[in-house]
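Appendix B, Record 12. Input sequence as logged:
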Amino acid sequence: MTTAPYLGLRPTGPGGPPAPVGREELLARLERALQTRGRALLTGPAGVGKTELALAAATRAEARGETVLWLATLPSDREIPGASAAALVASVAATVSLARPGGRRREPRPSDKASTGRTPTAPEASAVFDELPGPQRTAVAMLCREAPLDAGGWDPIALRLGIAQILRTLTRRGPVLLVVDGVQHVDADSADLLRFALHLAPPALRVAAVETPEPYGETDEPYRAPHRPDDPHAAHLWVPSEADVLLVPPLHADEIAELLIHHRLPSRMAGRIHRASGGNPRLALAVGRSLADARTPVHHAEALTLSGRARDLARQLLGAAPLAVRETLLLAALALRPSSTLVRRAGRPNAEADLAAAERAGLVSLAEDGSVTFTAGLLPSTLVHDACWAERSAGHAALAEVVDDPVEAVRHRALATDSPDENLAAEVADAADLARR
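Logged structural output:
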């Protein structure tokens, strides 16, 4: 979890910083949702730019003199009771103690740190906590491990009321924006505390939550329905109807070109980078940097040779899928015209469920006729690149038995073997003649 405030990372001009590339309209929608309803959920696949969008809204809020609390979670936080709530309290202390009159902030100084290694709160922050009644203050101190835990733990009612009172006290000083980055990782205890606090909070407290949906179940339940914004597990912090849900989509090709220029990367291959990345900004930048580092001109008819960070990011996206889903995706990557029916006939009896899970993860899109399209060209190329010869051979052999097109069947048989075969060579030549007609 990240407890330090994000503030001060970016200089701001009048009106705040510009929107991230391609996100002007979405940022305006986010700000309208926060102003009118006070709750917004940004959702979309990893790397699509949700955090960047939330950061832009937060930086604009700070430029207006608002108090901004930034709570970033990690997957491990979900297993630590109270982790996110403790991080929020620490963020309050750090943010308020660095505040100056008029909404300006001062930078932390080495002298802020006491000899004990504990960062003391400034009078402004101390006042927020001093307003708590004794039992609530004790419960909050126990949560943050600044007081010994009693044998029975903290008083849950006092802690609930204490967290709510802290947020209410902040709003008396002016508008407050709370950003929860990675709401899907908030532990259950913290979710309960925050949900109660937000229920009692005045309108001056607005909340933007950032969520990367979790499309896969546990190993014993790999095909469960995904966490959706109307699922209480995904929207930890409020009744679903209270929030506007904003899906962050991929960027268009012209926006990818602008993104590359913004990061001083060559944009002449923006179209191919867009196809390789599927419009995912993080993937697109990784592909652009991979091509820039190669320093070798790529002909428009040549395949992109990618390595390093681009491949690693694709592996991260694919690696989150269960093994069964990855094996099904490999067959789809090997096929010229993949479909759920073709992959199932090639030996994947749960193809439909596997591909549906992959679609929820943003790896593929499924048409009504069952045809499969990878959302980013880098994904199938990485699947094939990382598969061993035996896996590729077995996949091509299975596909050769079930494809309807004789030319495709010959192609798969040829790719399934590395031994000389005169008969197969003749079939390949005949198939080439047939394809040219």
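Residues 24-109+116-247 form a domain with the Rossmann fold fold (CATH 3.40.50).
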